[in-house]
Fold:
Amino acid sequence: MQLPVNFDSVSLDGILSDWVSALREFSVEAVAVLGPDPFGTTEDRQVVAAHPPLIADAAVALAESRDFGAPWRDSDAPLVAWQHIAKSEHLSASRWRTLALAHGLQTVVRVEFPLPAGRAFECFMFSPRELHDRTEAALLVWSALNIWPVVKRSIAQERSALSPRERECLALAFSGLTARESAVRLNCTERTINYHLANAMGKLKVDNKLAAIQRACWLGAL
Structure:
């Protein structure tokens, strides 16, 4: 099992800790972020972050389940979901729900952040009580939308082995620029751009620029 990246990142764990503290007025006690496995299939997910650490087992079970994720997206379901875990009709078949209840968590609110090629990051916020109405759920969603750019940037720094220049070259390619146009933008040679793109493709274990861009996106690097 790959450990959540915040377990080895003081900065990311601090961001998540501050986020949970800010959400305590809504009785949120835990958050988990699932992301696509950049080297797996559409349905393969990884636990990117989990705070506090004690919910890691529930987060891993959620990532391994077929709940939400690709099946959810394929059914044209909404980007936001709100469920009372104890009342779910799928409780008996969902190990993650059983583990969440064992940690005293009753409600989960999920927000999806779509990525290219049918992938997505999924943010889950857990509360030990039932939410009273949609207003409370909406406030949690709003908090996730506000903090996500900071969380995503920190996740990318921890998950990606790409150098800043490699990421920059991929970002320009993602914007539609050719190697020659990127060289003009970065005031370097076309050969230098291709060198950085080749290094990025090697690190991402692909043999073409498009696949490298996709995998960089799935890591949160773009």
Observations:
- The chain has a mean pLDDT of 89.
- The beta strands are 30-36, 45-51, 80-84, 107-114, 120-127.
- Residues 134-159 form the longest helix (26 residues).
